[in-house]
Write a structure and sequence with these properties.
Length: about 260
């Protein structure tokens, strides 16, 4: 069977969060990084796929009111012109056109736009939804229950392994747990390159090179194996790894790829 190809991919800007490198990876220092929180829209002949939904737009007007105290430690820069619905419309589609939403994991900077897509099918790694509703107490700050309560009636599918969305190799879900129980990676095969979107399996380029996990990973051993898997995709297959939160990746990679 011929290797399938996605037609296009857009990187859609969302909020920018300021955080120290020490939060993003073990071994990081106190340097403050301006980290993007993008979503990725993939066009395939059989439908649109969205990877991650960014932050909830309620934080534009009142971050502390919606996120609580964590917002005082993670300053946010975001414009109402850059909300996810407007970004999708800006590339010629409507949120209702999205067929699949793949959620890398359930942290507050990835799950805020779920309600834009009530008719989509949602794909998430096994164990993620339960953890989103009832995380460990020391990590509860990273999950916003109100991002999920309106979605209880949505069409959710938890996957406990890898999955080929269209059966042609063009868009592949990889189960890469460790950061959270159901963390996943999306591999997008385009005409001229293969893009690996690891979500928060890895947070910075330095973390990938050094195989450095993150302080708030729920399972550091699993996180290490998942990080090694992403690194192998880069080093062995020649794929381009686009790390969502890495400022340099956001600056260097084209935001529309065909």
């Amino acid at each position: 069977m011929a290797e399938g190809k996605a037609r296009k991919m857009w990187a859609l800007p969302g909020a920018e969060i300021t955080a120290p490198a020490s939060l993003m990876m073990h071994g990081g220092d106190d340097t403050l990084l301006h980290c993007p929180c993008p979503s990725f829209l993939i066009e395939h002949a059989k439908g649109l796929v969205l990877f991650d939904t960014g932050c909830n737009p309620k934080i534009i007007d009142d971050a502390v009111g919606y996120w609580g105290e964590v917002a005082t430690h993670l300053p946010v820069k975001w414009s109402k012109a850059d909300t996810l619905d407007k970004q999708i419309e800006g590339v010629g589609y409507k949120p209702s056109d999205v067929k699949y939403v793949v959620l890398s994991h359930s942290h507050l900077d990835h799950s805020g736009g779920l309600t834009y897509f009530p008719k989509a099918k949602f794909l998430v790694g096994a164990g993620e939804l339960r953890y989103a509703y009832w995380p460990d107490p020391d990590r509860r700050w990273a999950f916003i229950l109100n991002d999920y309560l309106p979605t209880r009636g949505y069409d959710w599918q938890e996957l406990n392994g890898d999955f080929d969305l269209f059966g042609d190799g063009a868009v592949q879900f990889l189960y890469t747990p460790g950061h959270t129980p159901g963390e996943c990676t999306l591999v997008v095969n385009l005409s001229n390159r293969k893009i690996v979107l690891p979500g928060d399996t890895v947070h910075l380029r330095a973390a990938l090179d050094k195989e450095a996990t993150m302080p708030v990973d729920v399972d550091p051993i699993a996180a290490t194996y998942s990080l090694k898997r992403v690194k192998a995709l880069r080093d062995i297959t020649g794929a381009t790894v686009w790390i969502s939160h890495d400022p340099e990746d956001w600056k260097e990679h084209p935001h529309r790829i065909e």
